[in-house]
DNA sequence: CAGATCTCAGCTATACTGAAATGC
DNA sequence: CGCATTTCAGTATAGCTGAGATCT
């Protein structure tokens, strides 16, 4: 009866919400990265295509800020997307430091396919949860994320 | 009024629960690893100390299985713990392939200190959530984790 | 012989840092 | 000058793989 199956974790570890979070995230990441890989893409690809589609032609720096991607990774990812003709990289005449990134029709089509892939994957991920539970999970995670995005300042004005 | 602050993410990205999970986990991991580092430890150290304390003297393989650690990482981590005299590594006379890992008194004291550090860190992590919300978050994550730990088989007996 | 254990060497991918070149 | 943008090179870490030696 006692299920001491030689792989039950220490009670201390099971009690850590941080561990639940990171372990669930690892599996989630594997699932999502795998589904995107089957479609020939990565999270960076999808993020930048989405940003280019939603925020029109924009600089690499702006797209990177919006997606939370590092400048270095933006460069590499735009290289890959441009090589597949999913975005175009052209100099910005108004500010010659910048490249203007524009999504192409092929990029828009690819984005649509990836939208479908990701919608399926979210469903696969959240399969054991009811719609209400899915909403609650998203809400709780959003609270944590926004709380830890702003390091110190509480609500209201910063004391002078 | 419109907060188009140049870093609002694409709507598609904000809609992804997978993204919420992985981003929250990244920040969580940073927080936990940082607090453990201040105490001179890592997640692997804590995991193995906890397993050694809770499951008595045991082989490296068993401790690794219980903690979800790779055999390679167990070797390296036990090296580090043994160098600090937090565990002892001795040959198992009953099965000479194995090393028996035993926590030392110093290891038990270190584990106690790390317990306190991690309790504080969980509180820091979950600060914006009520006790009920903390429980609900842990429950929802557990459902997801156990669902995706078992790849295919549903509840009940596997069809013959 | 199959299979488990321990160890070492090395790999992949994510996320990040530093610095240079260019332009505002 | 300080600051922003793009680019390249390199770094750190987690998690994992392969192979060998030893033993059951």
UniProtKB/TrEMBL annotation, chains A, B:
<dbReference type="Pfam" id="PF12802">
    <property type="entry name" value="MarR_2"/>
</dbReference>
<dbReference type="InterPro" id="IPR000835">
    <property type="entry name" value="HTH_MarR-typ"/>
</dbReference>
<dbReference type="InterPro" id="IPR036388">
    <property type="entry name" value="WH-like_DNA-bd_sf"/>
</dbReference>
<feature type="domain" description="HTH marR-type">
    <location>
        <begin position="14"/>
        <end position="146"/>
    </location>
</feature>
<dbReference type="InterPro" id="IPR036390">
    <property type="entry name" value="WH_DNA-bd_sf"/>
</dbReference>
<dbReference type="InterPro" id="IPR039422">
    <property type="entry name" value="MarR/SlyA-like"/>
</dbReference>
<protein>
    <submittedName>
        <fullName>MarR family winged helix-turn-helix transcriptional regulator</fullName>
    </submittedName>
</protein>
């Amino acid at each position: 009866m006692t299920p001491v199956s030689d792989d039950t974790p220490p009670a201390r570890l099971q009690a850590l919400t941080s561990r639940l979070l990171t372990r669930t995230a690892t599996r989630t990441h594997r699932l999502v990265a795998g589904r995107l890989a089957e479609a020939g893409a990565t999270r960076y690809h999808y993020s930048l295509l989405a940003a280019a589609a939603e925020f029109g032609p924009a600089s690499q720096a702006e797209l990177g800020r919006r997606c939370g991607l590092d400048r270095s990774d933006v460069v590499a990812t735009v290289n890959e997307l441009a090589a597949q003709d999913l975005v175009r990289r052209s100099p910005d005449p108004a500010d010659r430091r910048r490249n203007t990134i524009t999504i192409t029709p092929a990029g828009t089509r690819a984005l649509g396919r990836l939208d479908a892939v990701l919608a399926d994957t979210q469903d696969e991920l959240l399969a054991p949860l009811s719609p209400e539970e899915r909403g609650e999970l998203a809400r709780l995670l959003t609270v944590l994320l926004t709380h830890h995005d702003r390091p110190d300042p509480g609500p209201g004005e910063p004391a002078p």
